[in-house]
Structure formats: C-alpha cells, structure tokens
Amino acid sequence: MKLLVAALSSELQAFPAELPGFDRVVTGPGKMMATYGLTRALDAQQYEEIVVVGTAGAVSDAVASGIHDVSAAIQHDVQDLEGVIGQHVSLPARVETGRAGVTIATGDIFVDDVDAVERISTLGGVLVDMETFAFVWVAQQFGVPIRVIRVVSDRAQDGATQVWDEVVAACSAQLWEFFGREYGV
Predict the structure, then answer these.
(1) Radius of gyration of the chain (CA)
(2) How far is the C-alpha of 113 from the C-alpha of 118, rounded, in Å?
(3) pTM for the complete prediction?
(4) Residues 6+ positions from 171 with CB-CB distance below 8 Å
C-alpha cells in the first residue's frame, strides 16, 4: 500500500476519491500541519512509498511551467543561532528524496513578492512551497521512501495568491494526468 499526500483537498480535486493501492491524507497547509498529518498517518499504518502531490511557486526563471520531481528541500524561513538563513538550530539544512529533480524551498508563508523570491534564490531553491521539507523529514524518520511531485502554479511574485486561487483546478488536472501515467491508475 502507498500513501497519497496533499496539503490541500483542492490540489486533489481532479483525482478520483478512491485509488487502488493508495490510501490518502490531506494534511493542511504549512510545516506544522504537514508534520502532524503525515506523522499520524505513518504511525497508524506502514506504507511502501509516500507520494506527495501539490502546487509550488517558481522562484527561478530557468524553471519551466509544468510538473517537477523534487530531489531536495531546504527551509527559507529559519535561521540558526549565528543568524545563518536557511539553517535550523536542530534540523538539517537540506533533506533529500533520493530522486533526481529540483530543489524546493519550504516556509510557512505564501511567497508573493520579489524580495522573498530573491532571498530564496540565493539559498538554492528553484521552487517554493509550504510543506515539502516537513514531508521529507518525517518520511526519513519513519524510513519510508518518498516522492514529491509539484506542478508550477505561479511565479511567486506580486499577485501569486490570486493566481493560485484561479489555477489550482488546472494544476490538479495536470497532477492527475501525470500521476495516472506514472502509477498506472
């Protein structure tokens, strides 16, 4: 059995309610809710793989629209005791999925401005979201392989919040089409 995970039910709106071979969990947005929701699911049952789907903002012009596998996640909204941005006081600076793909920067804010995009770019992230670091870290604690699939919903600039509201249905359809091909469902 595999576990299909999304932060928001709207990101799964194009997916059928039941998928053979998959359980489903919607955690809620942000690192805390992602950590709590995925931990509860993994504490209740063993899974052979976690597959996370959802939207992400692009913070690099080099990143094309469409679907991206995530290879690593960093945090853009933390700093250690020396003031190093992106380094948490007790968590690793980077977590890896073990897959080829892009680096995503996770933080508990919806990125919607040029200054935040510039800061995140300097940390090495090309996509931005609110959950991936937490999902990958929790999966590692349980020793469960994880795949994170993100679709670019916006360019994380002024107006990104409004754009996301308008495009989430189309993003869900893109994710479902990709997911269906990849997992034969």
Answers:
(1) 15
(2) 9
(3) 0.90
(4) 11, 55, 151, 153
Largest CA distance in the chain: 49
Q: Specify the residue for token string 């080099």.
A: 62
CB atoms within 10 A of CB 135: 28
Q: What is the pLDDT of residues 94-123, one digit of tens each?
A: 999 999 999 999 998 777 777 777 777 778
The residue written with tokens 């709106």 in the block is 13
Cβ neighbours for 119, distance < 8 A, ≥ 6 positions apart: 76, 85
Beta strand 2-6 pairing with 49-58: parallel
CB atoms within 10 A of CB 63: 17
Mapping DSSP onto H, E and C, the string for 97-160 reads CCCCCEEEEECCCCCCCHHHHHHHHHHCCCEEECCHHHHHHHHHHHCCCEEEEEEEEECCCCCH
Share of the chain above pLDDT 90, in %: 66
Tokens representing residue 167 in the block: 């495009």
Rounded CA-CA distance 102/100 in Å is: 7
Helix (H, G, I), strand (E, B) or coil at 51: strand
